[in-house]
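Feature request, filed as a ticket because there's no other form

It would be nice if the structure record came with a short human-readable summary line next to the tokens. Right now we just get the raw output. Example of a typical job, pasted below so the devs can see what we mean:
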Amino acid sequence: IGANEIINIPMNQVTSVTRNIIPNGVEDIIVGDNDFRVLLRDGSELIGEPTSLNEESLIIFFKNTELSIPLPINEIIRIDREKVPDGSPDYSFPEFPKKHIASLSTGEVIAGQLLPSLDSDNWLRISSPILSSEVPLSLVNSLVFPASQETLEEVERQLAQEIKIEQDGNNKVPEDDKIEVNETEEIKVEIAEPKIRNLVSLSPVGMLWADKVQVNENEVIISALGKDGISIPRGSVESLNFGQEGLPSSAPVLVWGGYSDEDDEYLKTVNSLEGRIPQRKLLRSFAKVPDPDFVRTLKRSRVLLVPEMEGFRRTKMKESMEVEGRGCPTWQEAMRGHLKRGGNIIFLSPTGEALSFINECGFGRLSSGPAAAGWELTEEGKKTGIKLDGFIKNVNASHYYRRSDPWEVWGQAQGGVDSGILIGRKVDRGWVIIFGSDFYQQNETIKEVLHSLVKFNGRR
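Raw output as currently delivered:
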């Protein structure tokens, strides 16, 4: 402090350290043609250039740090080129369970098992029992990784079951009477204990979650991604945040529309977050049952956002669970698992039978209440981070709920009416939030409310 004063502060008393002066040259760094955004399963997010691939790791080079970090393959969710070349196709990837999917700048989409190249660590190989393709890393636009528990043996076994290879080279679909039907296995919802971790933000972009951080004169040494002794130059560290608990703020938002109007309220809800949350952080699901894909996606999401469930009927849900949901957890089990991991759930304008869905999930009795012309934030509501004052006018359509324990009223109906449009309650380590706007119509105020609710982390 000042010219000659030095104050020693114990690290266990520090919550965060942020750089105020950007190092020379960092502000001039721009995203290059070979830079990729890498999303990791622990919530870390990095931008760098993939330089090589081996059996265990993808090596990423960060030009602003002169640093190369080996990222364990089973910790990567996907990588995407930041600047896609002009004329490259924009793919919506098909479903290939237990396979890696590579989108190439030449237009091809390849699915199979990711393996190192036989000839060069600057190439990668996508292999299946009937086809093996080797391509340079420079041609990859996107690469999607299967869930970490899906090993090479599982991938190859499933691929081998999909098609039978005859000795004459012709492919033949297995006969129906030879197909073995396995017993349905129960999908277990694992309840992970929140971890106390440290967030290392890099200049100009990127973040790593670290279990341990050691700050030296010229470097920051961290333990992350199962590796110790990762050294980062201090000039490349923008900030350090210590003792973060629960799911990372960088984790995505899962927008679930299994019983929503996909072309109306669902689409408008997603569009309302445009410009506020990156599209890559908005995951979509229209699952009717909590199947393995839904459960896996929910486990890596921080927020489950549920647009108006106007298509929900208890009979429909029961039928779907009987037909498609064998071995799946119940919706109550899936959602309570999310809350126990520290995630939040936001329901938009549940009415009618959708209220019974919330009640049966065990979140607390909820019923419709008398409406008003508008509403205002309560003192509890202001603690959520919503920065609005005074009267907030309704939009079409708005719905209010009766005040009842254990719900807290965050948005109180005006005019002495004992109901609220915005309510919430803590369940396990997360929060369940009800906002009575269905986003059929919307304005900037309502959009900002939703954005604040999505960002809400429960620290009040």
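Something like this underneath would help us a lot:
Residues 265 and 440 are 5 Å apart (CA to CA).
The longest strand covers residues 45-53.
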